[in-house]
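User: Can you recover a sequence for this backbone? Please restate the input before giving your answer.

Assistant: Of course. Working from this structure:
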């Protein structure tokens, strides 16, 4: 199982609430980051993004911008209702939280101490690792009957062909082409071979619909 602590960034750039928007934007540019946790006496009290900072200050070219950057404080624009994660949370749980809350990062807190930050980039890297997209091989998309044993049956075909399954990701269900047949579930396999022709043939003989790779 991949956990938040396996993917989070441990070198965290933080701010105090009384620092200026100008200081915060400069940090974002220099460190090439988009989110800055805000700490007060070591305790997480907020988070501010480069978007928050840009939207709260006059646009580039506006004569009032320089003054605003020095007068607006981080505590004036930060979000104080911070959603955080634990280091031992599963990465998919954290990803789902970020999707549901429409947020770009999760501070990671353990025993009231900020120990890391998980961003959308970190989650994307974890997804690539989980599905094995970083390894050589092929992608196969198969429609399986949505009933017990179907996944094991397809896996058995790969085993018969001497093909190792790197990963299997369950997709959505769909209605079958023929009425009365069970619904189908789309499964994306990552396998450690380039030549999938033999496996495709055996899968189709076994009654599975191979959606990818397409037939020549």
């Amino acid at each position: 199982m991949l956990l938040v602590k396996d993917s989070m960034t441990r070198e965290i750039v933080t701010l105090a609430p009384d620092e200026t928007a100008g200081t915060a934007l400069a940090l974002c540019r220099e460190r090439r980051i988009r989110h800055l946790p805000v700490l007060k006496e070591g305790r997480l009290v907020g988070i501010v993004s480069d978007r928050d900072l840009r939207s709260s200050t006059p646009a580039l070219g506006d004569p009032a911008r320089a003054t605003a950057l020095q007068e607006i404080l981080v505590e004036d624009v930060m979000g104080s209702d911070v959603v955080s994660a634990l280091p031992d949370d599963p990465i998919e749980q954290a990803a789902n939280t970020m999707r549901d809350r429409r947020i770009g990062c999760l501070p990671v807190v353990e025993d009231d101490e900020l120990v890391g930050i998980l961003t959308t980039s970190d989650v994307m890297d974890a997804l690539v690792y989980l599905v094995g997209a970083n390894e050589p091989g092929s992608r196969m998309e198969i429609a399986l009957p949505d009933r017990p044993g179907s996944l094991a049956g397809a896996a058995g075909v790969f085993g018969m062909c001497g093909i190792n399954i790197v990963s299997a990701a369950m997709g959505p269900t769909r209605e079958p082409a023929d009425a009365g047949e069970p619904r189908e579930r789309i499964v994306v396999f990552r396998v450690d071979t380039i030549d999938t022709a033999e496996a495709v043939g055996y899968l189709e003989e076994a009654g599975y619909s191979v959606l990818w790779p397409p037939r020549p």
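That completes the design. The beta strands are 35-40, 43-49, 105-110, 113-119, 138-145, 165-174, 184-191, 209-212.
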